[in-house]
């Protein structure tokens, strides 16, 4: 479905507000003030195809983890996001990025499930099989300019992933000042959530460090999982994300 079809007006709520006589300070007739707030239909989100076989990342990530992670975990975030949006009047007509930029501390269900949908959609692409095994070109230059070297970046990124306490993500993002930054967020937060996260930006690489991402294969060895996944990052996909900004 095209975006503009999501954006169509579903109707107009006309709220007639009668000015209170107590508020009137002269003898003019009471005016009926009508406000017309268009209510935009919520975007309905769908689970994207993984785009490759569940076993395509073996031995770095096993097929069963990929299948459960994509179909059950990511699928669950999409279902719950749509349910949360149906209960809300705040996010109508907005893209996922616009929703994430607008969420506040109290938008718990949209925050968790909208983040979950965005984060996993990015993750499947940046670990897709193939592509360059190291950054080069404009992205390579930006990594060198921001971190000094690829190795310095990789060390900072792995540290962010390893030291995230509990569930969360490590990120490489382009910040508003144009620099690349490494950060981590708890739960399904991400750097687009400018109202609730410390390090803001647009992520171009994300690494899921929830236990559901690795526990079947790696059990408690999160560092081994991080090392394995960093070795299979599809840097062409990350470069495409960078070039799109
Ligand atoms: Mn996950």
Report on this model:
The protein has 245 residues and is α+β, with helices and mostly antiparallel strands. The chain has two domains: 34 residues, no CATH class; 181 residues, Iron/manganese superoxide dismutase, C-terminal domain (minor pseudopilin epsh fold), CATH 3.55.40. It is built from nine helices and five strands. The strands form two sheets. A three-stranded antiparallel beta sheet has the order 4-3-5. The protein has a two-stranded antiparallel sheet with strand order 1-2. The radius of gyration is 22 Å and the shape is globular. The N terminus is likely disordered. Bound molecules: manganese (II) ion (MN). The site of manganese (II) ion has 7 residues, from helix 2.
Outline:
The chain has 245 residues and is of the alpha+beta class.
CATH superfamily annotation of the largest domain: Iron/manganese superoxide dismutase, C-terminal domain
H/E element sequence: HEEHHHHHEEEHHH
Mean pLDDT: 89
Give the structural class: alpha+beta
What's the CATH topology name of the largest domain?
Answer: minor pseudopilin epsh fold
Strand order of the largest sheet: 4-3-5
Give the helix tally: 9
Distance between the termini: 24 Å
**Beta-strand residue percentage:** 15-25%
Task: State the CATH architecture of the largest domain.
Answer: 3-Layer(bab) Sandwich
How many strands appear in the DSSP assignment?
Answer: 5
């Amino acid at each position: 479905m095209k975006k503009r079809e999501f954006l169509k007006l579903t109707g107009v709520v006309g709220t007639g507000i009668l000015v209170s006589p107590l508020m009137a300070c002269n003898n003019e007739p009471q005016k009926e003030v009508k406000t017309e707030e268009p209510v935009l239909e919520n975007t309905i989100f769908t689970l994207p195809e993984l785009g490759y076989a569940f076993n395509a990342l073996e031995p770095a990530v096993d097929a069963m983890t990929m299948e459960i992670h994509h179909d059950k975990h990511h699928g669950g975030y999409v279902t719950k996001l749509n349910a949360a949006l149906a209960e809300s009047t705040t996010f109508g007509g907005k893209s996922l990025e616009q929703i994430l930029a607008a969420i506040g501390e109290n938008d718990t269900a949209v925050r968790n499930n909208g983040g979950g949908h965005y984060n996993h959609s990015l993750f499947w692409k940046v670990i897709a099989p193939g592509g360059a095994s190291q950054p080069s070109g404009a992205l390579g230059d930006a990594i060198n300019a921001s971190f000094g070297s690829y190795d310095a970046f990789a060390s900072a990124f792995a540290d962010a992933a390893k030291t995230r306490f509990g569930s969360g993500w490590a990120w490489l993002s382009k910040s508003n000042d144009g620099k690349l930054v490494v950060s981590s967020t708890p739960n399904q937060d991400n750097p687009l959530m400018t109202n609730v996260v410390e390090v803001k930006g647009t992520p171009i690489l994300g690494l899921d460090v929830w236990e559901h991402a690795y526990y079947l294969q790696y059990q408690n060895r999160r560092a081994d999982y991080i090392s394995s996944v960093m070795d299979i990052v599809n840097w062409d996909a990350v470069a495409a994300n960078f070039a799109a900004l």
